[in-house]
Amino acid sequence: MPGRHDDGSTDEREYGFPVPMWRALARHSPPGTGAARRGWRSPLRGPWLTSVYGGILLATLPLVILTGLLDYLAYGPQFNQAFPRDVGWLRLPQVDWPTRPSWLFRVTQGLHVTLGIMLVPVVLAKLWSVIPKLFVWPPARSVAQVLERLSLLLLVGGILFEIATGLLNIQYAYLFGFDFYTAHYFGAWVFTGALVAHVALKLPRMVSALRAGPPADETPSGPTATRPEPPDPDGLVAPQPAAGTVSRRGAVTLVGGGALLLGALTVGQTLDGPLRRTALLLPRGQDPGDGPNGFPVNRTAAAAGISAEDTGPDWRLTLRNGGREITVDRPGLLAMTQHSARLPIACVEGWSTQQYWTGVRLRDLAGLVGAVDPVTAQIRSLERSGLFNQVTLQANQVFDADSLLALRVNGAELSADHGYPARIIVPALPGVHCTKWVATIEFRTDG
């Protein structure tokens, strides 16, 4: 019970803070806060609509997070070639990324990007449904509310940051001023932590609101008869609601339609084939060229600084195994047993394509240099700089029957942009690790 002092004051506490404290804050609200709060008058806002959008996000965001973490593992962080390299205690378990199914990375990365884009309307609708809370003053009246608001700040800021940087990255608009991979990775962990905290706090209310259902707003009078929900403890319901312009179910349908439209404009970049022309958000355009080499590239030969002299008749592939070293020219490679496989190549930006590759198996090259049981193979490119001018492959990637040093694609010689005179193609490997313009392959037995 609050106590009263001789001077008439009390030590009464409300919501965890002394009453005079929050009353003083209430008297000194920022200009326009109250008016802005009253200005949000949609009768749609309330626990049910917010919970519907929240439920959709709760069902789908874990899949976006999981596929993102799987894609990080695909880059081989155990070889210090995933970015960011130094992640401290956020390092994921070291695993050998499988080569089967061959479309594994194509699906995980395509799903990560496509689903992430489709959720943009849902995220914006969810923020719209709770935006009046931003104008509540005082912003918190207890320590618990302060912690809740901090988690919300990290949650909202985290998801908007991930969406903005992700969209810019798939459009090759590197306007960040910082490394995308590092920021996106740590941003994902900040968002994930805030999401877990938010779900722990709000899940019971979300379930209760969904069970209660919406008010009966589908009437012959149309959306103008949409009724507000009863006042709620979170203050989502407008204190002075205006007439409705759309029903709640209509709002959900509109958001869902927007998500499906974005999916339809994106998914073609992963499915490839004729649907590629429907992927209007595809960063590499609708016409990657004609002929056997007519499919997208991430980095051209010119951008990589690869000249015709580098890949001319004097080019040699160097194979190493301990102290042993041999060199092979392109005619020598073509004289070896050739193997063909139809394999996808998938990029971090979400696009992928499946082509018919022909070349020498990596395990045959290992045998050529006497590497009977290599643990890894380090591939280096003619490219002299860049994040992905070399890659380390695991043993299972070296010995897969379809892992190739590709010399031809779709029955034709590789073009310069696609890695002539030779490039790596490994099932389920991220596209940037399918090194182009290969110069050396070093097989190692010591890991």
Automatic annotation (TrEMBL):
Transmembrane segments: 48-70, 110-131, 152-174, 180-201
InterPro entries assigned: Mopterin_OxRdtase_euk, OxRdtase_Mopterin-bd_dom, OxRdtase_Mopterin-bd_sf
Secreted in keyword set: no
Residue ranges annotated for the Oxidoreductase molybdopterin-binding domain, each copy included: 313-445
Disordered, as annotated region: 212-242
Pfam families noted in UniProt: Oxidored_molyb
Alphabetically ordered keywords of this record: Membrane, Transmembrane, Transmembrane helix
Record bears the keyword Transmembrane: yes
GO MF terms held by the record: oxidoreductase activity
Name the UniProt record assigns to this protein: DMSO/TMAO reductase YedYZ molybdopterin-dependent catalytic subunit
